[in-house]
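Hello forum,

I keep getting stuck at the same step: I have a sequence, I want structure tokens, and every attempt I make locally crashes halfway through. Rather than fight my setup again tonight, could one of you with a working pipeline run this one for me? It's a single chain of 379 residues.
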Amino acid sequence: MKKLGLSLFVCGAALAVLAGCAKKNSDTLPVGAIFPLSGQVAFYGTESRDGALLAVDEINAAGGLLGKQITLLSEDDEGDAAKALNAFTKLTTREKVVFILGSSTSGATKGMTQQAQQSKVVLISPSATALDVTNAGDYIFRACFIDPFQGVVGADFAYETLGARRAAVLYDAGADYNTGLADEFKKEFIAAGGEVVADEAYQTNEKDFKAQVTRIKAADPDVVYLPNYYNDVALQAKQLRGQGVDCALVGGDGWDSLIDNAGDEALNGFWSAGFAADTTDPRGADFVKAFQAKFNRPASQFSALGYDTMMLVADGIKAAGTFDTAAVKDAMAKLNGAYVTGNIRFDGNRNPIKGAAINEIVRRDGRLANAYKTTVNPK
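Reply #2:
Ran it on my machine without issues. Output:
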């Protein structure tokens, strides 16, 4: 792969080389994509990568960026922080990449953030929602809402829309994502006037939730909050329904693809998402059609977020008028415009200020489907 071109700057120190200076005659811009393409959360990574690929196709068809065609260089981190850092090192040293999309999970993303900041590499995650992901510095961005907002959204939706007053919570105590959502849900639900009648935790990779479900049933909640990934939620929903807990189930964006891994026990389930595939917004609807045409499968929130992540980098480069990452990250921080997942502008920590869609799991044409229910916007 040719080194990244940058005609406006002269290469000096090694760090400057990494940050953008290279051969003037390079006709391509390599962009890194570090996602879990295998393992338990491979769905998130492959969806985000493919959304980014669609964006790359559209950008290149429109003439590229500042006269260069984009090439997306994908690496598999398997959802592991150490492997994410290895992939980061490979892309930045061997391919001289200075713009990276990834990762899908908060842990893997945080495995790269310190090095990205030190190396002046723009790193933007489509779906790393943990609050501290962007703490490493001003080269780190994300396209998704943060965990506290998802927890607040879940609590407000449960209390105000579902009319719930007694909530149970079941979450993975060993994962930042799960505990972050759980903590914020409990605080917001109690602040709204509700009561958390069961607060249950489990350990990563646990499959038998009988003890926790028994205590939840005894507490008689009218909503159960499950801020966990879809593979765990599929088991939890089945075990909850099996013990007669038939109240509404509410969760976060980790539920994406739950409908492909669960049965009717997931009905009366609601989850916060960065995107609803049945959106009527023209920009979102056009994306759904284009994604279906290219990949012959429906778009998900992760594919939409992957698409927006690439577009945010592209718009930052266009606004800066250069590939220099210092100028690009400053331009990205000032973006404010319409994207597939809604209007996006960044706060002081480079977290997007945007709403969350609430999807309901329904049965449609003989199979489970996600149906847009409502949107909850920041207060």
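The radius of gyration is 21 Å. If your local run keeps crashing, start a new thread with the error log.
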